[in-house]
């Protein structure tokens, strides 16, 4: 797994979602400078942080590892002027449920074809 590929995908998803490095760092419970290093490919992202980022953006870990995969990104729409860490945890929880439902539908499709 290439650190650069994952970092580039996380930066792309973060930018598309309109999140700052600071908001992402707060959500992942790491320093903002670490986000910069992850996005540049200078440092690896931990498995826990990768899973949390995947949930936040509504993607599987495999989709984040694959830069060629151009799945649609999620846009956050808030009427508030800022997004809190708690807001991001709520978004991630909802996205994780949606991703699990999507995966269950794919499994059901496969079982129906056999």
Q: Specify the number of helices.
A: 6
Instruction: Summarize model confidence as the mean pLDDT.
Output: 87
Alpha-beta content class: mainly alpha
Query: Number of folding domains?
Result: 1
CATH architecture label name: Orthogonal Bundle
The biggest beta sheet is recorded as: none
Q: What is the CATH C level class, in words? A: Mainly Alpha
- Spans of at least 5 consecutive residues whose pLDDT stays below 50 are none
Number of strands: 0
**CATH homologous superfamily label:** lambda repressor-like DNA-binding domains
Strand content: under 5%
Order of helices and strands: HHHHHH
Radius of gyration: 15 Å
**Helix content percent band:** 55-70%
- Overall, the morphology is globular
Distance between the termini: 32 Å
As for the CATH topology, it is: 434 Repressor (Amino-terminal Domain)
Walk me through what this model shows.
It is a single chain. The chain is an all-alpha fold and about 110 residues long. It contains six helices and no strands. The longest helix is centred in the C-terminal third of the chain and has 29 residues. The chain is globular and about 50 Å long.
Provide keyphrases for this structure.
68% helix; 114 residues; 434 Repressor (Amino-terminal Domain); globular; 6 helices; mainly alpha
Compact description:
By secondary structure, the protein is an all-alpha fold.
Q: Could you outline the blueprint of secondary structure elements for this entry?
A:
Blueprint: H1 3-17, H2 21-28, H3 32-40, H4 47-57, H5 61-65, H6 85-113
Helix pairs in contact: 1-3, 2-3, 2-6, 4-6
């Amino acid at each position: 797994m290439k650190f650069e590929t994952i970092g580039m995908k996380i930066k792309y998803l973060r930018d598309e979602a309109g999140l700052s490095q600071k908001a992402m760092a707060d959500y992942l419970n790491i320093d903002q400078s670490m986000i910069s290093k992850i996005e540049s490919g200078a440092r690896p992202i931990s498995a826990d942080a990768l899973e949390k980022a995947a949930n936040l953006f509504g993607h599987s870990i495999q989709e984040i590892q694959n830069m060629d995969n151009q799945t649609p990104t999620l846009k956050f729409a808030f009427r508030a002027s800022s997004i809190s860490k708690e807001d991001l945890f709520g978004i991630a929880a909802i996205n994780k449920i949606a991703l699990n439902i999507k995966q269950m539908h794919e499994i059901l499709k496969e079982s129906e074809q056999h």
